[in-house]
Amino acid sequence: MSIDPEKPLETCEPESCDDCEIHNGVHCHFSLKDWLYFLLISFPSLIIGGVGIHNFNSWLIIPWILIIIVFFGFIEIRVMCSHCPHYAEPFTSLKCRANYGSPKLWKYRPGPMTPGEKAIFFIGFVVAWGYPIPIQVHGEQYLLLLLYAVVTIGFFIILTVFMCSQCMNFACPFNHVDKKTRGQFFDKNPPVGDVWKKYGDRDNE
Fold first, then answer.
1. What distances in angstroms separate CA 204 from CA 77, 174, 179, 199, one per listed residue?
2. C-beta of residue 98 within 8 angstroms of C-beta of residue 38
3. Where are the domains of the chain?
4. Rounded to 5, what percent of the chain is helix, strand, coil?
5. Dihedral of CA 143/149/154/155: which sign?
6. pLDDT at position 16, please?
7. Has this prediction a pTM greater than 0.85?
8. Which residues of the chain have pLDDT under 50?
9. Helix (H) or strand (E) holding 58
10. Are 130 and 124 in contact (CB under 8 A)?
11. 103 forms bridges with which residues in the sheet?
């Protein structure tokens, strides 16, 4: 089940999405197709990293998988996703393209992330994608390491250019929706906009 593309968000004031001027500026509705596309661009780096770990010591894959599940399935949801307007939707799990199916265990908290949350967010990414690197270096798998680096960098470029540029989670450090579009989104989503206004210029970070 995904968000009804014909129905505005729970935080949105308009009763219809018809003629919405920010339709092309902010991606508000997600489907399984969006999630599968995200997996298509993210999994190659994880597969290559996993191959490198397996070649060195297959048992080392277990802690890596646990790190990925715990961080992206629970910790990231708390420090980053719980700030997203999508988190206010009436589902028990997320239906977004990056964390589809993750349980919504935390309270919806509109507004920016705290410095501590941002630190945890970046540390999680560094650990998750950095884990295979020392193993590949120690195992002298340099060609595989180069391929892993290229594919991982490619993933983050695609993510920031094509997804983060239209994401409605303005709290995320990767988000770069332009200021005008953000303002239009806030106007249509007063519960979100009112909270962000309390932080003044912090919404431009």
1. 22, 12, 7, 10
2. yes
3. 32-204
4. 60, 0, 40
5. positive
6. 84
7. yes
8. 1-2, 201-205
9. none
10. no
11. 93
Which residue matches tokens 């009804």?
4
Residues 119-142: tens digit of each pLDDT: 999 999 999 999 999 999 999 999
Instruction: Tell me which residue of 114, 105, 88 sits closest to 168, measured CA to CA.
Output: 88
Predicted pLDDT at 147: 97
Q: How much is the pLDDT for 1?
A: 43
Q: Tens digit of pLDDT for each residue in 63-92?
A: 999 999 999 999 999 999 999 999 998 888
Secondary structure (DSSP) of the chain: ----TTS--TT--SS--TT-TTTTTSB----HHHHHHHHHHHHHHHHHHHHHHHHHHGGGHHHHHHHHHHIIIIIHHHHTGGGSGGGGSS-SB--SSSSTT-B--S----SPPPHHHHHHHHHHHHHHHHTHHHHHHHTT-HHHHHHHHHHHHHHHHHIIIIITTSBS-TTSTT----HHHHHHHHHH-HHHHHHHHTTGGGGG-
pLDDT score of 2: 46
First to last CA, the chain: 34
Residues 117/24, Cβ–Cβ less than 8 Å: no
Token reading at 174:
């990767």
As beta bridge partners, residue 27 has 167
Closest Cα partner for 193 from 181, 180, 201, 182? 182
pLDDT number for residue 4:
67
Q: How far is CA 46 from the centre of its chain?
A: 16
